[in-house]
């Protein structure tokens, strides 16, 4: 019998309507109001039981770090077509930019809450960690690839998917550069957490598995050191992740990138390729003639993506797409 005394409300149990699907279903709209602190805390919640109580199909999270539009998105649409259950997309753009992809696009509503990211500043690493944290909220995401608006795929999706899923390593470049552009950027105030013998340099464009993605967003030891003592001309996006992984997970990274770039022209940025550069021979040079280690064995398949490609390259890339990423 319900208690009818004034001011006392009856204890009414709410019906339980949630099931496992409620917790594992990925969000259809990625916009939320969490702060970075709240987001990283939420994303750090991981299952300690490795056997999933549902049929988990591991996915690749393609994370685009861009200022605004994705001019090469039609090529990515072609690359991803037919594989919707095997990938997720996340876009970090300027806060003022609002993407206008149609509902039929794989990029529709894939923009995450963002902040301004400046080249060479810690805000760039913040953006990368923000992408990782949002992607970690989807339990099915297993591999995480950082891309720019000027990146393209150079293999078909099936090859890319199996290459990543079967890899025992994450693809992070990390090398000891004794020059002024490497060790010369080290600040002694970073010790004892980071010593100069551990200081590393590498490409910003990385690929990591779920375990290492969690390592990046959970870090509170190295982050303040890099934020306070690695400022231009110490470009933190070239040093923070490579150095931290060298210290914390040296045997879990392949010490190379899977994104091809051309630095042969010199300068602070790699070469950019436009319409006149795109030929069958050019793509073949990127794909073929390489040698690297894959799962500690020699391999000729070293790159899955390439950059930097100008918007003018889109039409010839689409024309050649059947030859290198499929129809």
TrEMBL record:
This is Uncharacterized protein. Its main location: membrane. Keywords: Glycoprotein, Glycosyltransferase, Membrane, Transferase. One of its GO terms (molecular function) is glycosyltransferase activity. It comes from Amborella trichopoda. GO terms for cellular component: membrane. It is found in: Membrane. It is a single-pass type II membrane protein.
């Amino acid at each position: 019998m319900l208690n009818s005394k004034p001011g006392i409300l009856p204890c009414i149990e709410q019906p339980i309507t949630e099931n496992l699907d409620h917790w594992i279903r990925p969000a259809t709209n990625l916009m939320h109001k969490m702060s970075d602190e709240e987001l990283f805390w939420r994303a750090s919640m991981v299952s300690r039981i490795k056997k999933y109580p549902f049929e988990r199909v591991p996915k690749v999270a393609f994370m685009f770090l861009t200022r605004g539009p994705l001019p090469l998105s039609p090529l990515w649409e072609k690359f991803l077509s037919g594989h919707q259950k095997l990938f997720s997309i996340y876009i970090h753009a300027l806060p003022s930019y609002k993407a206008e992809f149609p509902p039929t696009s794989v990029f529709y509503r894939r923009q995450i809450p963002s902040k301004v990211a400046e080249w060479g500043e810690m805000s760039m690493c913040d953006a990368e960690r923000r992408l990782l944290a949002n992607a970690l909220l989807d339990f099915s995401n297993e591999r995480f690839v950082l891309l720019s608006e000027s990146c393209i795929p150079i293999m078909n999706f099936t090859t890319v998917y199996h290459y990543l899923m079967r890899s025992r390593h994450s693809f992070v470049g990390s090398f000891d550069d004794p020059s002024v552009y490497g060790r010369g950027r080290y600040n002694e105030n970073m010790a004892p957490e980071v010593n100069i013998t551990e200081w590393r340099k590498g490409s910003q464009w990385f690929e990591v598995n779920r375990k290492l993605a969690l390592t990046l967003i959970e870090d509170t030891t190295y982050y303040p050191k890099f934020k306070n003592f690695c400022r231009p001309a110490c470009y933190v996006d070239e040093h923070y992740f490579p150095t931290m992984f060298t210290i914390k997970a040296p045997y879990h990274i392949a010490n190379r990138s899977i994104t091809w770039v051309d630095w042969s022209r010199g300068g602070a940025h790699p070469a950019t390729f436009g319409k006149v550069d795109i030929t069958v021979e050019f793509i073949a040079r990127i794909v073929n003639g390489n040698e690297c280690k894959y799962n500690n064995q020699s391999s000729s398949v070293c790159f899955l993506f390439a950059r930097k490609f100008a918007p003018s390259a889109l039409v010839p890339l689409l024309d050649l797409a059947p030859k290198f990423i499929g129809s």
